[in-house]
Amino acid sequence: MPDNRFTRTIVLPNDLIPEIPIGKLYGCILAMLLAVGICLSSKAQGQVADSLLTLLKSNPAHDTMRVKLLVNIANSVVWNDAAEAMVYADQALEISRELGWQRGIASSLRQKGVTFYYMSDYLRALDVFQEALVAGETLPEKNLVPSIYNNMASIYAELEQYDKALEYYEAFLKSARETGQKAFEVIALTNIGVLYNDLDQPGKGIDYLDKSLVLAREANLANFVSAILNNLAIAYEAKNDFAEAIGFYHQAVEAAKEAGNKNAQASALNGISKLQLKQNDSAGAEANSLEALKLAREVNSLERQSDVWKTLSNVYELKGAGNRALDAYKRHISLRDSVLSQEKKTEITRKEMQFQMNKNQAVAEVELKRERLIRNVSVLGGMMLLLGSVLAYWMYKKRRDTLAMQQEADFKAKVAETELKVLLSQMNPHFIFNSLNSISDYISKHDTEKANHYLLKFSSLMRMTLESSERKEISLEEDLKLIETYLQIESMRLNHKFTYEIKIDPAIDVSNTLIPPLILQPFIENSIWHGISKKAGNGKISLEIKRDGDFIVYSVEDDGIGRQNAAKENKLHEHSMGTKISQNRISIINKLKGAEGDIRMIDKPEGLRVEVKLPLELVF
């Protein structure tokens, strides 16, 4: 997916000053009615907030006017301070419930949902939008419920539940056409077009975006035109129609200038620069990228700056300016990691919430069964003498079922907890710290070639690790590539203190064999850190993979100092943690697949041999 893609937007209300649209419309804050088509700057948005606060102070009564002011203040500050926006939205909701004003309740809940979205708390945003939908379904207003459908669709799209997102977008489009609201129709068509681009169906995306562009121009919605043009450029670029793509990028630049949207302008300029690179026009690409960087800095968009620095790195590489290319790439990595760390934090939070939800639901089901059992026993207490034997059997069966459910609940919790621990453990902070220090050391020694080589290896490993963490199984070929990259980086960091070899049984098709990602990484890491790195001389690590009937057997062998000497140095804590996580993963695989996988550790006179046995899983 292109780095400069546009995302989704929501609809705006008619009777209140509109809530900020969900999606990255490049900092364009819509604080006027949508029909006016005015896009305010951050400074103007602050002036709106100040004016609203002045009105709020002059209206202390808990009435509908104060609710409207609170919702609109929350809307005006949400881009800069989501926590402050939530305070105003909560106050609006509290007063609306005091008054019993259903419209205020629905609008306040909708604003809370928008605020949760900007806090990257998608699950809570979805919960609040669903509550707003229930509150708004009984209202006569024609725009509130459709706007909530659109907001929910945008969150489903963020969570990559595209079928659900398309269902809600189409419901929104149908409502917009039935009520004749052209602005809503523009938003619905644009969002559906972006969704098809996300699904790698640019042809369908172009159809919807073309219709959206025509309507936006007819309705004089200048604030949307640059976004639609940019998405059209991206879609044509995906179809390798570069002539059409660059034409739409230029139109997007002009439209963004007219709307005063610097972020949109920076994105379009960066898109032009990338196409110029494909045509070997380094001078034009550099000029456009530098202009894009200037605009991105003016609006303080870290994500856009990261994209532009990556393009500049490619520009300088094409021009043969190696040092400038490396410097630009390091800036890209630094800014990208700032964005990725927040995304990873959000993903971990989401997994933690899902884990708690699964665990609480499972425990609640068990508790409900237990309460029903007690109630049934009480009702049948008077019949104990007559039906003693029947009741005894029934209680035994019920207890057995309850225990089985409890075991199932514990297993689900163990699966969720193990997945979370694997995700958190795959990015070892000590390894990252040491690698970054090594890169810094090469740079300080002006060894640009080695620094660049190390950096490329390190960034490749980080990318592969993040991608594999989202999947339960990957091909053996992918996993071996990841492991070999890790071994190469560690070998470089330790000044080639060890060598390694990988032997694969000819009976194994590495591209057709599926394994859990990074199942061997903890053992290889232990061999390096606790075995060979403590050894006086150089060492060797041997990785062997062979087939044993319906199982695949891995062995990791080193000639390091061994477990007993490592224990004397109190260095086995990390080893035991990594081994415990791997044992839990294999235990889960055994239960799910009815297999008998295991881990064996064999002490040698010098070093350690670890054997991991897993059920053989093939793609076809």
Written account of the structure:
With 620 residues, this protein is of the alpha+beta class. Among the domains are: 208 residues, Tetratricopeptide repeat domain (Serine Threonine Protein Phosphatase 5, Tetratricopeptide repeat), CATH 1.25.40; 190 residues, Histidine kinase-like ATPase, C-terminal domain (Heat Shock Protein 90), CATH 3.30.565. The strands form two sheets. It has a five-stranded mixed beta sheet with strand order 2-4-5-7-6. A hairpin with a 2-residue loop joins strand 4 and strand 5. Helix 2 runs parallel beside helix 4. This is Tetratricopeptide repeat protein. Pfam families: His_kinase, TPR_12. Keywords: Membrane, TPR repeat, Transmembrane, Transmembrane helix.
Descriptive keywords:
single chain, 620 residues, alpha+beta, Serine Threonine Protein Phosphatase 5, Tetratricopeptide repeat, five-stranded mixed sheet, 22 helices, 68% helix, disordered N terminus
